[in-house]
Amino acid sequence: MRAGIVGFAASGKKTLFSLLTRMAQAGYAAGARRGVLAVPDERLEIVGRLHKSRKLTPATIEVVLIPALRRGARGQTENLAALRDVDAIVHVARAFEDPTVPSPFDSVDPGRDASKLELELLLTDLAVLEKRIKRLDYDRARGIPEPVRGERDLLDRARREVEQEVPLREALSVEDRRRLVGYGLMSAKPHLVVLNAGEDEAGRDPGSWPGLEELSRRPETRLATISARIEAEIAELPDEDAAEFRRDLGVEAGAAKRIIRAIFELMDYATFYTAAENEARAWLFRRNTRAQDIAGDIHTDMARGFIRAEVVSYDALVENGSWDAARKQGALRLEGKDYPVQDGDVLLIRFNVG
To answer: What distance in Å separates the CA atoms of residue 289 and residue 296, rounded to the nearest whole number?
Structure first.
């Protein structure tokens, strides 16, 4: 899973990147910066303890921070290109007032900024679509057949939607977007808008800012509110003090957990586990993915030689106290390749590639 963080200058996106990846801001340079977010997971700790695992490996999200977009600047397409290979776009929109941190605009308006960024993504997509359509038309004129049947018509339909400023995540079906995934079209990607607010609005409903209520209802779009500066200060406190501070702010969890939760909802992600004495590991997956496809995420040989999946739910594992006890109590299930894996499943994949 890869998430791209983007935003205009002075929005606080570097602070959020540091909070998520625990990487210092010092040394930030031109070009995209990459870090890794380890997903906090109390269930993994329990799964590992019940299996007496020597090592715990949490699920991770790669986080890509691209350089700030600037008002009226040219050449921003090059910066946005770093978003082509991400699975979801996280837009940090400034919602705080601070005269010591000048805004690139005349006022602080996260609704306006969200619209401006969407337009930047649409313009970038339009350039990609027009270039590919032009190439296909050129080949057709020379008698070269279309490499993928229906591609030209789909690209033209996508172009018309983009010209009408309709994001492709709203305009195209999941299947059509899957057919165009190789082009890295940005408006086709799920979109999380993070409102970076001041301390007094850290718990504010993100849809309550002007211009964002409608956005919150759009397909594959989520909103979240944080106060990145305050969260950076809280991150330095002991856990008990940090929890009390957040209660005073009216937020129930840290920024990282709230962003992860929003990304999970946005992407329809869940977690399954594998465990043995050497390692217990958490894995991210889209809900209801087939067991054989899940096996392929672990190792390609597992998918190729898939026999069955032995499955114990997390709740059943905890209730019985161990994998062997769950087996003896009939809580272990044998599932075939088409089994839709569920959140919290602990899996043992049986396979043979001999």
So the answer is: 11
What DSSP string describes 80-97?
A: HGGGTT-SEEEEEEEE--
> Could you give the CA distance from residue 281 to residue 45 in angstroms, rounded to a whole number?
9
Q: Which helix (H) or strand (E) holds 282?
A: strand 280-286
Is 250:202 a contact under the CB 8 Å cutoff?
A: yes
Q: Kindly give the interhelix angle for 255-267 and 13-21, rounded to the nearest 10 degrees.
A: 90
The torsion defined by the Cα of 141, 142, 143 and 145, in degrees rounded to 10, comes to -80
Question: What does the alpha-carbon distance between residue 324 and residue 329 come to, in Å, rounded to a whole number?
Answer: 9
What confidence score (pLDDT) does residue 27 get? 45
Distance, CA of 160 to chain centre: 27
What is residue 174's predicted lDDT score, i.e. its pLDDT? Answer: 92
Task: Please report the pLDDT score of residue 76 as a whole number.
Answer: 62
Strand order of the β-sheet with 60-65 is 33-38, 60-65, 2-6, 88-95, 191-197, 221-226
Helices (H), the chain: 13-21, 42-50, 76-80, 110-141, 151-163, 168-171, 174-179, 228-234, 239-249, 255-267, 291-298, 300-304, 314-320, 323-328
Structural contact between residues 224 and 123, judged by C-beta atoms closer than 8 angstroms: no
CA distance 205 to 224: 8
The string of pLDDT tens digits covering residues 222-244 is: 999 999 888 888 888 888 888 88
Q: Region 247-254: what's the mean pLDDT?
A: 76
Average pLDDT of the residues in 151-169: 96
Say how far apart CA 218 and CA 158 lie, in whole Å: 18
pLDDT in tens, 179-191: 999 999 999 999 9
Q: Over the stretch 115-126, which tens digit does the pLDDT of each residue have?
A: 999 999 999 999
